[in-house]
Design brief:
32% of the residues are buried. The chain has helices spanning 2-42, 46-55, 59-68, 72-81, 88-106, 110-145, 151-204, 208-212. It has one domain. By secondary structure, the protein is mainly α.
Length: 213
């Protein structure tokens, strides 16, 4: 019984960082999912409207639309539109500089989610190792004292090993899946911004950008 109580205390300490990781992972997943959903449902249609306004040489209206619907892509286009009276190189540099500021917003906290996906199995493995160490220590102590080891004497260490491993994997697997899904979303959104920037340059330069490339 004493060994089981000790194992339960160890289990609590080993599960605490895994539980904390699960809370952080859930918070990141919910925040990022809401962020990407907001962009998809409310704002991406503004890009085609901005291009249409630029094609009609309504630069002021296009900038106003960017300001009315601010998100990563419209902010990048606004940087180019604000330099529409200058050369292609100046506009392109302005949009590239804006993208250096806007794209990291898409990747916010994803590095933490990836870290959680990688460390939680290690935390579970740590619990497994400690559980097995406890089991073999119990075998040694009981053998020296009584010479006979009961299954109940080993239950605490094995219980700790199995629970921590399962807990670590339970957090790591969904975290890794969501991390890869969000990275895919970021790549798609970045591609959308790049295409819109290229199209805007073609429109503002009267097709010269396309011909030079």
């Amino acid at each position: 019984m004493e060994e089981l109580i000790l194992a339960n205390k160890q289990l609590i300490w080993l599960l605490s960082p895994i539980i904390l990781c699960s809370v952080f992972a859930l918070a990141i997943v919910l925040e990022r999912a809401f962020f990407y959903l907001t962009i998809r449902t409310n704002k991406t249609e503004a890009l085609s409207q901005i291009i249409k306004l630029a094609r009609k040489n309504k630069i002021t209206e296009a900038i106003e639309l960017c300001q009315a619907k601010p998100f990563y892509a419209t902010n990048i286009l606004k940087a180019g539109l604000s330099q529409s009276q200058k050369t292609k190189e100046v506009m392109e540099e302005a949009m590239e500089n804006a993208s250096l500021y806007e794209v990291p917003k898409l990747e916010k906290n994803l590095n933490f989610l990836g870290t959680i996906a990688h460390i939680t199995p290690l935390l579970g493995l740590l619990g497994t190792v400690i559980g097995m160490v406890t089991t073999f220590y119990t075998i040694e102590q009981v053998t020296q004292a009584a010479g006979i080891v009961n299954p109940s004497d080993l239950a605490g260490g094995i219980w700790t090993a199995l629970i921590t491993t399962a807990a670590g994997l339970s957090v790591a697997i969904p975290s890794y899946i969501m991390y890869n899904y969000f990275i895919h979303k970021v790549r798609l959104m970045t591609l959308i911004a790049e295409r819109a920037s290229t199209e805007l340059l073609e429109v503002l330069m009267g097709g010269s950008y396309h011909n030079e490339v």
